[in-house]
Design goal:
Elements lengths: L2 E2 L7 E2 L5 E2 L2 E6 L5 H9 L4 E6 L15 E5 L8 H10 L3 E6 L4 H9 L4 E4 L7 H46 L3 H14 L4 H15 L1
Parallel strand pairs: 4-5, 4-6, 6-7, 7-8
Antiparallel strand pairs: 1-5, 2-3
Helix pairs in contact: 4-5, 4-6, 5-6
């Protein structure tokens, strides 16, 4: 059963390339907790996007990407580990989970599966705003780290290609390393291309020459 919250909020652009609303999706399997959860979300800096009564309905008819998803589950968190891992791949967002109980092993595995805030037997309306803020902060920090790691890997790959292109020019033209680099950089400027593009072209052409 759906409870659509009518609240006109602007769509915000996430720093890391994701269009997200300023709203929170609520997945509540415990009917008697509905009022507490809805009011807790409304007490925060975010609006309630909608409330669904089971995990199976999360991706049904949702056309707006929420900034966070808050889950209040009946069963064990371990029953849903695969779901949370897949959800972060399909639709990454800050994820908050309330459960009645969880073992140390279940908590560790839950965090590994992509949950940013796991609260065991601690559902209180007054705590919800701070929990949402914390989960969103952790989510954005993780995105930032992932982006930095990706950029580092790309820089290392680009450096390998540049070194290879320099080596090719040194062999073909019989020039020194600094001259080869200057030649590549000049070609990039003359052709209005990035240095890595020119180097990639040199490496590709070398395959047909050799």
């Amino acid at each position: 059963m759906w409870h659509i919250a009518c609240n006109n909020r602007f769509i915000i652009y996430d720093l890391f390339g994701l269009y997200m609303s300023n709203k929170v999706l609520l997945v509540n399997e415990v009917k008697e907790d509905s009022t507490l959860l809805c009011e807790g979300v409304n007490d925060s800096n975010y609006a309630l996007l909608c409330e669904v009564d089971s995990i199976s309905k999360v991706f049904m008819d949702i056309h707006e990407q929420p900034v966070a998803a808050l889950y209040n589950l009946k069963g064990c968190i371990s029953d849903h580990e695969k779901y949370f891992s897949e959800k972060q791949l399909r639709s990454p967002m800050a994820t908050i989970v309330f459960v009645k109980e969880a073992s140390k092993g279940e908590i560790e595995q839950a965090i590994k599966s992509g949950i940013h805030a796991l609260i065991v037997n601690g559902l209180e309306q007054s705590r919800i705003p701070a929990i949402i803020d914390t989960a969103i902060f952790r989510f954005r920090e993780q995105l930032k780290k992932d982006e930095e790691l990706l950029q580092t890997k790309q820089s290392l790959e680009d450096r390998k290609v540049i070194e290879k292109a320099k080596g090719i020019l040194m062999d073909i033209k019989g020039i020194k390393e600094d001259e080869a680099f200057k030649s590549l950089r000049k070609s990039a400027m003359d052709e209005n291309k990035k240095l890595i593009e020119v180097c990639n072209n040199v490496v590709k052409m070398a395959k047909y020459i050799s």
